[in-house]
Every structure is written in structure tokens, then in C-alpha cells.
Write a structure and sequence with these properties.
Helix content is 73%, strand content 4%. With 270 residues, it is mainly α. The chain folds into 2 domains: 127 residues, no CATH class; 137 residues, no CATH class. The protein has a 3-stranded antiparallel sheet, with helices on one face.
Length: 270
């Protein structure tokens, strides 16, 4: 690559970074917010960098070819970025990166480079927080569903329980399923983990899709098990034993269970 080309590339990269400053600041605020569901957002760029690094030998064999289509794709992405920045819609600004980056790859390297780089680029979507309205709605429906199914499970275990909204009442205890306990945090994290597991598997595209999508019911099911266990602990040993260390430990165990469930699905399909 000539010196002038390097200068132009450096200038273009600098301008793009500056253009994305508002989006990056918005994502950082969401990643570091109290009770955030996207604390894993910091890890996603590093994972993507690792995925690209893994492709280094393949990319080294592919000649660089400028594809004029890159200008159109890049233009669309930058237009979406500009409009969403003006309207202060951080979610769309973040996702515009998934259009801008393919445009850059096409423009600077060609479509033969884009194919091996598509998954790392798409994986960046997991660092972009969903709009708070969507998170609130999902969290509400998930916690109501979890409380409903957990109540049924607890009753089948021989402990009488009734549900009032997201409140589970037993004879001697009351357990409130609040937003952080809705399971949405583990659902979002497991969704990303499912994508990675499917990507690294040696399965067909259909089976990879099954592995990826199975992360949803697995995350929901393990959270229901967690809430059921906490309700039983609260009834048998007292409400104080269903909070604090026990509550937090159960959260970690549930994610481990979910990961094992995801791995089991992948192994079963293999």
C-alpha cells in the first residue's frame, strides 16, 4: 500500500472514530449503569478482534481489491449514523456500525475479504444495548412468566403457593420477582454465548441455528428453576436465606447450568 493510501486510510479512520464518539459514549454509559444488562459489552470488541486474528492466515492469502459497491454501503451506514445522531437514537447509531464496517471492508479489501469477516462484524451487535423501552417490556413479560411457571413448580413440589403479579406467596414467605431477576441478563449473555458456540462448532448451518436459538429457552428455563429454588428456600428456611449471598450464588449457578445446557445441545447435535 502506498504512502498516500495509508494517509487517506488513516484520515478516513480518524473521521469515522470521531463520527462514532456520541454512539460510543452512549454505549459506555449503558454498559456501566447500575443494574445494567450489558456489562459484557466491554468484552465484545476484544472477542471480535480475536475472531479476526484467527482468520489472519486466510486473509493473508486473499488479494486486496477495491469494490466500488463499498461506497454505497458506507454511504447508507453513515447516513443512518447521521440521522440517528441528530435524533439522539443511540441504539440505531450503534447498529449503523454493522453497515459501515462491511462498507469499509468492501471499499478497502473487496468482497472476498468480507465473507470471513462477516461473523466478527455481526457479533459486534451484542455490544449495542437494546432501547430501554424494549428492555423494560421484555423484563416485565419475562418476570411474570417466570413467576407463573415457578409457582406451578413449587406447588408440584408440595409447597402451596399463589402468584400475584410477579409476587410469589407461600404459607410463611413472600418472594418478589423483580426486574433484575427476570432472567433477561442471562438471556442476553447466553444469546451471545450461543452465537459463539454455534460459530465454533462443526455443525451444518441448520444445526448451528438450532444451537443459537436454543439459548433462549435454556436461559428462560434455568431462571425459572432459580426462582423456584429461591421460593422453596424462603418457605423452608426463611426469607432472609433467599437473599444476599444465596441469591447471588444462585445467579452464578444458573448461568453455569445454562452454559452446560447449551453445550449439551451442541454435543447432542454433533
Amino acid at each position: 500500500m502506498k504512502k498516500n493510501d495509508l494517509i487517506k486510510l488513516g484520515l478516513l479512520g480518524t473521521l469515522l472514530i470521531l463520527a462514532y464518539v456520541p454512539a460510543f459514549v452512549w454505549m459506555y454509559v449503558r454498559w456501566t449503569a447500575k443494574d445494567t444488562y450489558y456489562s459484557h459489552g466491554f468484552l465484545v470488541p476484544f472477542i471480535c478482534a480475536f475472531l479476526v486474528w484467527q482468520k489472519r492466515k486466510i486473509l493473508a492469502k486473499i488479494p486486496l481489491k477495491n469494490d466500488p459497491l463499498g461506497w454505497s454501503v458506507l454511504g447508507i451506514g453513515l447516513f443512518i449514523l447521521g440521522v440517528s445522531t441528530i435524533w439522539n437514537v443511540g441504539f440505531i447509531s450503534g447498529f449503523s456500525l454493522l453497515i459501515v464496517l462491511p462498507g469499509l471492508v468492501l471499499l478497502l479489501a473487496g468482497k472476498d475479504w468480507l465473507k470471513p469477516l462477516m461473523f466478527p462484524i455481526i457479533f459486534l451487535a451484542f455490544m449495542v444495548p437494546l432501547p430501554e423501552m424494549v428492555i423494560t417490556s421484555l423484563s416485565f413479560h419475562l418476570k411474570i412468566f417466570a413467576a407463573q411457571v415457578a409457582t406451578i413448580m413449587v406447588n408440584h413440589m408440595g409447597i402451596q403457593a399463589i402468584r400475584e403479579g410477579s409476587l410469589i406467596k407461600t404459607a410463611h414467605a413472600t418472594l418478589m420477582v423483580e426486574d433484575p431477576c427476570s432472567g433477561i441478563r442471562s438471556l442476553i449473555a447466553l444469546f451471545a454465548l450461543g452465537a459463539l458456540m454455534a460459530y465454533f462448532s462443526n455443525l451444518s448451518k441448520i444445526k448451528r441455528s438450532v444451537v443459537f436459538l436454543s439459548s433462549i429457552p435454556i436461559a428462560v428455563a434455568t431462571n425459572v428453576i432459580r426462582i423456584s429454588a429461591l421460593a422453596m428456600i424462603a418457605e423452608i428456611y426463611g426469607e432472609k436465606y433467599a437473599t444476599g449471598l444465596v441469591h447471588d450464588t444462585m445467579g452464578i449457578l444458573v448461568f453455569v447450568m445454562a452454559f452446560m445446557g447449551l453445550a449439551a445441545v451442541a454435543n447432542l447435535l454433533e
